[in-house]
Design goal:
Layout: E1 2-7, E2 12-18, E3 31-39, E4 47-51, E5 60-63, H1 69-82, E6 94-99, E7 110-111, H2 114-122, H3 131-144, E8 150-154, H4 164-167, H5 173-178, H6 188-201, E9 210-216, E10 220-226, E11 229-233, H7 255-263, H8 268-277, H9 280-285, H10 290-298, H11 302-326, E12 331-335, H12 336-341, H13 343-350, H14 362-366, E13 373-374, E14 383-386, H15 391-404
Parallel strand pairs: 1-6, 6-8, 9-12, 12-14
Antiparallel strand pairs: 1-2, 2-3, 3-4, 4-5, 7-8, 9-10, 10-11, 13-14
Bound molecules: adenosine monophosphate.
Residues 217-218, 246, 288-291, 336-338, 341-342 line the site of adenosine monophosphate.
Length: 405
């Protein structure tokens, strides 16, 4: 079994998975035994929602103050123990931690020791919003089970294969190197999983296919994957670059930030909050949920329609750019909350790209399913696919492969 932990600043998401490779009639490899979420850590109204899938039990929800990550993880451990899945179980092989920033050093999942933890801490200046919470999660889990291998799986790792000309910004090299400024990319676990699953759907080996992966969730990123290796991705030093997202602007002229400081009297933090939290779809139309935006468009709301058009325009530009980067594209894969569920986004993103070999079959695109599937017509030269992402399974598989090797 592997426990996967995704620790945010005030939340912990977790899944316990059975990795049993030869199950002998037991659960298949990758079966979820329990899933849950602790939210609002540090507040009086913290909430723990735990679903014991192994026992088929109902979701259990508890509310009340959970002071910190240590208390949160202890509460999770107690829930798991109540189902006979406690952290002291000899069947638990590893804890897999999602770590957002692994910099250049971590190109693969890594068993965490003091030196690894110190290196993840050294990356805090380039990932101030994410790595501190990940570190807290690791520390707490290590304290609970010091004997158990803890594995860090990095969001940046899949992108470390990007060629230097794609990873570097065209700024003064000495300044960039002194401050580790370059394009790292994020959502790598999802891009890795989805590009591999796309190859599987096409009946090919990942080494044989070139895929453009569009991870469209509240955060959103595109990647160009050539023969299983990432060659470009839309997020950069931080997850702010690239596509229009739920609350982030994605690409803008960097001079906008100086202008806001000089002309609008905004501070660094004000601009940070503006671009990360008050921009993107929410900044454009007040909503970041694609369902709500589509509903408003259906009612004739022009602001919602413009927000949608801006979102799609940016997406199209990246599809075009990555087609050029890859030279030959075998598939475009949509994933995450918007990519998996919003048929109008998929249709609009590929509309008018017939010259590039892309097309969407309206009936296939309308199908709702949790399975990987094609949405392109038979004649299309480039496949279009919907591939539900599964970052937890990918983290569990990577962690398990490492500790059982
Ligand atoms: P994620 O970050 O991958 O969990 O994606 C969350 C986003 O997915 C939400 O903010 C919505 O915009 C979008 N989403 C989720 N379900 C649907 C749906 N049924 N139709 C359209 N968009 C959806």
């Amino acid at each position: 079994r592997v426990l996967v932990l995704n620790s945010g600043s005030s939340s912990v998401k977790y899944q316990l998975l059975d990795m049993n490779p030869d199950s002998g009639g037991g659960p298949a490899a990758g079966t979820r035994l329990a899933v849950g979420l602790v939210e609002r850590i540090g507040e009086d109204t913290s909430r723990l929602a735990h679903t014991p899938l192994a026992t088929g039990g109902d979701k259990r929800e508890t509310e009340g103050p959970i002071a910190d990550h240590e208390a949160a993880l202890k509460a999770v451990a107690a829930e798991l123990a109540a189902d006979g899945l406690g952290l002291d179980s000899p069947e638990l092989a590893a804890i897999g931690h999602r770590v957002v920033h692994g910099g250049l050093k971590f190109t693969a999942p890594t068993v965490i020791d003091d030196a690894v933890l110190a290196e993840i801490e050294r990356l805090v200046p380039v990932a101030p919003l994410h790595n501190p919470a990940n570190i807290t999660g690791i520390r707490t889990a290590r304290a609970l089970r010091p004997d158990l291998p803890q594995v860090a799986v990095f969001d940046t790792a899949f992108h470390t294969t990007m060629p230097e000309y794609a990873a570097r910004y065209a700024i003064d090299v000495a300044t960039a190197d002194a401050h580790r400024i370059r394009r790292y990319g994020f959502h790598g676990t999802s891009h890795a999983y989805v590009s591999r699953k796309t190859a599987e759907l096409l009946g090919k080996d990942p080494s044989e296919v070139n895929v453009i992966v569009l991870h469209l969730g509240n955060g959103a990123s595109a990647s160009a994957v050539a023969g299983g290796r990432c060659v470009d991705t839309s997020m950069g030093l931080t997850p702010l670059e690239g596509l229009v997202m739920g609350t982030r602007s994605g690409d803008i002229d960097p001079a906008v930030t100086f202008h806001l400081k000089r002309v609008a009297g905004m501070s660094e933090d004000d601009v940070d909050v503006l671009l990360n939290k008050k921009s993107g779809l929410v900044g454009l139309c007040g909503d970041n949920d694609m369902r709500e935006i589509r509903r408003r468009i259906d009612e004739g709301d022009e602001r919602a329609e413009l927000a949608f058009d801006i979102y799609i325009h940016r997406l199209k530009k990246y599809i075009g750019a990555y087609t050029a980067v890859l030279g030959r594209v075998d598939a475009v894969a949509f994933t995450a909350g918007v990519g998996e569920n919003a048929a109008p986004v998929r249709a609009a993103a590929l509309a008018g790209l017939e010259e590039m070999g892309l097309a969407v079959d309206a009936d296939l695109n309308a199908v709702r399913s949790g399975e990987p599937r094609l949405i392109s017509p038979e004649y299309a030269r480039v496949a279009a696919a919907v591939i539900p992402t599964d970052e937890e399974l990918e983290i569990a598989q990577q962690a398990y492969a490492l500790v059982s090797a």
